[in-house]
Specification:
CATH class of the largest domain in chain B: Mainly Alpha
Shape of chain B: flat
Oligomer: heterodimer
Structural class of chain A: alpha/beta
Distance between the termini of chain A: 73 Å
Structural class of chain B: mainly alpha
CATH topology of the largest domain in chain B: MetI-like fold
Number of strands of chain B: 2
Number of domains of chain B: 2
Number of helices of chain A: 18
Order of helices and strands of chain B: HHHEEHHHHHHHHHHHHH
Largest sheet of chain B: 2 strands, antiparallel
Order of helices and strands of chain A: HEHEHEHHHEEHHEHHHEHEEHHEHHEHH
Strand content of chain A: 5-15%
Strand order of the largest sheet of chain B: 1-2
Helix content of chain A: 40-55%
CATH superfamily of the largest domain in chain B: MetI-like
Largest sheet of chain A: 7 strands, mixed
């Protein structure tokens, strides 16, 4: 290279460098994040603004995706991932983990989580529940709910009853409280009702292992559960198709004495019933075994993302105590951090306590690619047919066994 | 165009240029296709390609969450459909659904149109009001009727109990013997204005002389309806029936909102079943095969419609 040429190039480079450098710095990394809140009017805008102020190089594009009982959100997410147009990060459920694993869609977060200061503020138990089948950590926990039993304190007192601790006590109370227009138990047989069925049938001895749905104990537990509607008749006639809205509205209207749901509906129910309502953990089997649904919600970063580190910064921000509490005010669920939970005032105390008292028996559904189909199709159709007497309770259990274990 | 360069004019000096220009101006037999090309391209993009893709999907065992593990199974999905109990249940419900909904929408629409064709002082308002159900989005209709049917707080049960027709509320949407009929009632209510408006438009084209002549001949109202009104609007009715059959056969939104196909399979129709297999189970191959079976069944109706439409064009 000629000296003159070298000088020219150097000069050009020197001129170009200051022009180029700010240009790169000025282009912020954009993180597309998919979320869903039960109340679509709630917006995470304040959290986004706070994060962007703390992280000037990162822009968050938060996209609200309709939940549709979980199906809409899930299908859109998988379709977007297959089409190569998925977000960088999204709110996800444990029951989808096996499907994500089949697609190799998620980025392992172990290294980033180990270097994150907020790690120790989330209990080891929660980390354990959220671990991937291969031992890696793909999910960063965000919030949780646990199914417990809402009951009408006033009606229980009038009838001289204590909140039920066992299945037998539950049935006795339901029978005693079924009078006239009031049904003892507002059973959820429609969409999402597996979380009403689980405490009695999975808690009563059924399992998702091979043969676990058709063991004598499992079949007996399911017969007992179906019998609540068909023999004991302690449920409303609409139970086979009643879903979240119907069970909550009927409970609020005083048409049922007990329902099973989580803390997410407590403010609404207290708004209608005030001190007349309280909650306890779901009843257990005679042998002391119990099961209740751990309704998890985490964030995950997708392996196709080009902004993985920025995406992790954002989801870590959301799972940090103070921000996590702000987020839970929007979602109506419970904070995932230990320090955040200690300061939590988003729900009346008795419901938060019922949630934490339920944790020892709280489980998620199996990490299996067929779990979402179980929730959305296999469980409701077979449960409803059994409740309406179109098939026997045993046939229902055989269908579930067939679904998971062929 | 050729005549412009003919007519005894001596050939221009540059013959090559002349030929090119003439060829340029001569309408080739491809010219019409060039004009059609944009429309055809759009049609290909939005109809032909997705349809071909659906056919291709139906020949595969394709799970949305395992796109790389898709295997070609030939007609395997179709063989599985024939053995699938839920398919036959859904097919039966589809038949009841189409015949019941379209038939009753038509009858109700015909009666409404005949009434709206009479003169009365608030006819304008009545004609506007009858369109309301048709103008509402299906999801709203579904939600509205779900609440009307609600077991605990629904207005229907409340009214029937108050009047004394029933003693206790009925779980309309939770009983397998009532659920399909209950949803059909909602859809009949939504769709009858289409028939009412279409038939009303047809009625207004019937010359009044025909009725006057019939009256002079001593015909009564029933005879006029049977021998003048119905034959005059037969074409309108046939087209409306065919169109509505296609729409109703495909519609699943109201069912999805009201029962999601339940209780059990009580309100499963073919499009709903295909939807459930695609979106709940993510079995896109199987769902595509189900959708194709529905398409093949509907093609008979579409064929009748197209034949009718082209006959009208030829007139």
């Amino acid at each position: 290279m000629e000296r003159r040429e070298f000088l020219k190039l150097s000069a050009a480079a020197a001129l170009a460098a200051p022009l180029a450098r700010p240009a790169i710095a000025q282009t912020p990394t954009t993180v597309r994040w998919w979320y869903h809140f039960d109340n679509p009017q709630n917006s995470p805008a304040a959290l986004v603004a706070k994060f962007e102020q703390e992280n000037p190089g990162i822009k968050i594009q938060a996209e609200a995706i309709p939940w549709g009982g979980g199906n809409d959100y899930q299908t859109r997410l998988f379709a977007a991932l297959v089409a190569g147009n998925g977000p960088d990060a999204a709110m996800v459920r444990l029951s989808w983990a096996a499907r994500f694993a089949a697609m190799k869609a998620l980025e392992p977060l172990d290294a980033m989580i180990n270097g994150w200061a907020g790690r120790s503020d989330i209990s080891d138990n929660v980390w354990k529940i959220n671990k991937g089948a291969d031992g890696k950590q793909y999910y960063l926990p965000l919030q949780y709910v646990v199914i417990y039993l809402y009951y009408r304190q006033d009606l229980f007192q009038q009838a001289g009853l204590q909140p039920p601790k066992t299945f037998d006590e539950f049935l006795a109370a339901a029978k005693a409280l079924t009078k006239g227009d009031v049904a003892g138990f507002g059973m959820r047989g429609g969409a999402g009702g597996f979380d009403n069925w689980g405490p009695f049938v999975l808690g009563g001895g059924a399992s998702f292992e091979k043969g676990g749905m058709v063991s004598e104990k499992a079949l007996a537990a399911n017969r007992w559960y179906v019998g609540l509607a068909r023999e004991a008749k302690v449920t409303p006639a609409s139970a086979p198709t009643d879903s979240f809205r119907q069970i909550v509205d009927a409970f609020k209207a005083g048409r049922t004495a007990m329902i099973m749901h989580h803390v997410g509906s407590s403010n609404e129910i207290v708004g209608a019933l005030g001190d007349k309502v309280s909650a306890v953990p779901v009843p257990r089997a005679a042998d002391g075994q119990g099961w209740t649904y751990f309704g998890d919600e985490s964030n995950a970063v997708f392996s196709a993302s080009k902004a993985k580190e920025a995406a992790f910064k954002w989801i870590a921000f959301l799972s940090t105590a103070e921000n996590n509490n702000e987020l839970n005010k929007l979602t109506g669920q419970l904070p995932i951090t230990t320090s955040g939970a200690a300061q939590w005032t988003g729900h009346p105390k008795r419901f938060v306590e019922a949630s934490s008292a339920s944790l020892p028996i709280a489980r998620s559904l199996p990490d299996h690619p067929k779990t979402p189909d179980f929730i959305a199709r296999i469980w409701p159709t077979n449960m409803q047919r059994a409740l309406n007497g179109e098939i026997s309770p045993d046939d229902m259990m055989k269908a579930i066994e067939q679904h998971f274990n062929g | 165009m050729r005549s412009q360069s003919g007519g005894g004019t001596p050939p221009p000096p540059n013959r090559k240029l002349f030929l090119t220009t003439a060829a340029y101006h001569r309408p080739s037999r491809w010219t019409p296709f060039w004009f059609l090309a944009p429309a055809l391209a759009i049609k290909a993009a939005v109809v032909v390609v997705p349809a071909a893709q659906t056919i291709w999907l139906s020949l595969q065992d394709y799970l949305l969450y395992e796109p790389d593990a898709a295997t070609f199974v030939g007609l395997g999905n179709f063989r599985a459909i024939l053995r699938d109990e839920v398919f036959w249940i859904s097919l039966g419900h589809s038949a009841v659904w189409i015949i019941g909904v379209v038939g009753l929408q038509f009858l109700l629409g015909l009666v409404a149109a005949l009434l709206l064709n009479q003169s009365f002082w608030w006819r304008g308002a009545a004609r506007a009001l009858v369109v309301v159900p048709w103008a509402l989005p299906s999801v709203i209709i579904g939600l509205m009727w779900t609440w009307m049917y609600d077991f605990n707080v629904g207005v229907l049960n409340d009214m029937l109990v108050r009047i004394g027709i029933i003693d206790a509320p009925i779980a309309w949407l939770a009983r397998p013997d009532l659920a399909l009929a209950a949803i059909m009632a909602a859809l009949i209510w939504q769709g009858f204005p289409f028939f009412a408006i279409t038939i009303l438009a047809g009625l207004q084209t019937i010359p009044s002389e025909l009725y006057e002549a019939a009256e002079i001949d001593g015909a009564n109202r029933r005879q006029m309806l049977w021998h003048i009104t119905l034959p005059s609007i037969a074409d309108v009715i046939a087209t409306a029936l065919l169109l509505r059959t296609i729409w109703v056969a495909n519609s699943l939104d109201v069912i999805l909102v009201m029962t999601g196909g339940g209780p059990g399979y009580a309100t499963h129709t073919l499009p709903l079943y295909a939807f459930v297999r695609a979106y709940n189970s993510m079995e896109f191959g199987y769902a595509a095969a189900l959708a194709l079976v529905l398409t093949l069944l509907l093609l008979t109706v579409v064929w009748l419609y197209v034949r009718r439409a082209s006959r009208d064009l030829d007139r």
